[in-house]
Write a structure and sequence with these properties.
There is one protein chain. By secondary structure, the protein is an alpha/beta fold. The protein contains 14 helices and 16 strands. The chain has 2 domains: about 230 residues, Rossmann fold (3-Layer(aba) Sandwich); about 110 residues, no CATH class. Strands 1, 2, 3, 4, 7, 8, 9, 10 and 11 form a 9-stranded mixed β-sheet that branches. A hairpin with a 2-residue loop joins strand 5 and strand 6.
Length: about 375
């Protein structure tokens, strides 16, 4: 097991990725290769670069032109697969390279396997292709970081993803890492995201890093070190030794702004608690809705009067509850409970509840607008 890390840009990515794979002695043994990038959301440009840039995949295709590549990814509920693949440039990549095909994991055939927590349905292509994990370098408001190990969660059905949050996110990520092992992990660290991703408060981070390794756990550990984050503080990664192939590591560290240790995140007068039991589906719906409200042109237009706009942005205090372990706010405020997991909490405390598993972005946005802005009479 070993890790290769170096500085790179998109301009010299082909040379540096080839050097990294050669140093690790890696060449696909299977004619068919499965690539799992990270394409988390359609609003990537707002929150920071959490997408695996298509140029990293393109460089890999150019290095091994005689292989057949399948780029596989699913999307969170409420997101559109075709929109994400078009905006990220992967449709264009598949058109330009005949040996590249795209696979929507949301409709892919699956096979049941045994793992530490019973049975798990994973994509059939994991058994027919050689698997390469291709995450990005970014922090995460619940997981701490989202690298190779967490990127594999995107291989699962939505029902299993939600199960991860209910039964313990870090524990389940570790179990998945033991059950599904890629032949190679290639982390795109040229552009990443730092801070409370996927919240709108996160920002882009350009570090010009390329990190490759043949062990998921060790590669994630190395990535944490290069991000300036102690791996021991990330429960699903943990401490351990890392064997770097490159001896000269000075100047490689890129200090990422970590997730702040706090109970909640504030955006304008909205308060969103950081509950690890909140699944990605509800979190994305809530975050996308908040971002659309901040950027929504209609907020600045009629029939919204100036005092209503002032109320929404400054005077309003709204507590947004998601997840199966909600916490009662400490101060009096308006509480909106999102998702089926909060139904009992909302009923017991007489709070406003929006049902669904998960509710759509449009439904959440309408709910936030109606509950947060008083009606003119």
């Amino acid at each position: 097991m070993a890790v290769f890390a170096c500085r790179t840009t998109y301009k010299n990515l082909y040379e540096n990725l080839g050097r990294a794979l050669a140093s690790l002695g890696y060449e696909p043994t299977n004619e068919r290769v499965l690539l799992k990038p990270c394409l988390a959301t359609s609003r990537q440009s707002i929150r920071g670069s959490a997408w695996t840039n298509r140029r990293v995949v393109e460089a890999l295709v150019q290095i091994f032109p005689d292989r057949l590549f399948t780029v596989a990814e699913g999307v969170p509920p409420g997101q559109d697969y075709e929109t994400i693949m078009r905006k990220s440039g992967y449709f264009r990549l598949a058109r330009e390279y005949p040996q590249v095909e795209l696979l929507n994991l949301d409709v892919a055939r699956r096979r049941k396997v045994e793992w530490e927590h019973g049975q798990l349905e994973i994509p059939e292509v994991l058994f027919t292709h050689e698997y390469i994990n291709m995450p990005t370098l970014h922090t995460h408001m619940v997981a701490g970081v989202s690298l190779g190990l967490k990127n594999q969660k995107g291989l699962l059905r939505d029902s299993d993803k939600k199960r991860f949050h209910k039964e313990g996110l870090h524990k389940m990520i570790v179990s998945l890492g033991k059950a599904v092992k890629p032949k190679m992990t290639i982390i795109d660290g040229i552009e990443g995201a730092q801070g409370d991703w996927p919240m709108p408060t996160s920002t882009k981070k350009r570090s010009n890093l390329l990190i490759c390794g043949d062990d998921n756990f060790e590669t994630d550990r190395a990535a944490c070190m290069l991000m300036g984050i102690d791996p021991a503080t990330i429960p699903h990664i943990g401490p351990g030794e890392v064997k770097f192939i490159e001896k000269e590591m000075k100047g490689l560290t890129a200090r990422f702004r970590p997730v702040k240790t706090r109970d909640s995140i504030k955006l304008m007068r909205f308060n969103v608690p950081l509950d690890p039991s909140t699944c990605t589906a509800c979190a994305n719906a809530g975050n996308e809705s908040l971002m659309q409200l901040v950027l929504w042109p209609q907020i600045l237009m009629l029939p919204y009067t100036l005092w209503r706009l002032l109320y929404f942005c400054v005077l309003n205090r709204t507590y947004i509850v998601m997840g199966s372990k909600p916490i009662t706010p400490k101060r009096p405020c308006k509480v909106i409970c999102i998702g089926d997991c909060t139904r009992k909490f909302a009923r017991d405390n007489n709070y406003y509840h929006l049902p669904g598993c998960s509710p759509s972005i449009h439904e959440v946005r309408k709910t936030l607008m109606r509950a947060s802005i008083p009606t003119v009479r």
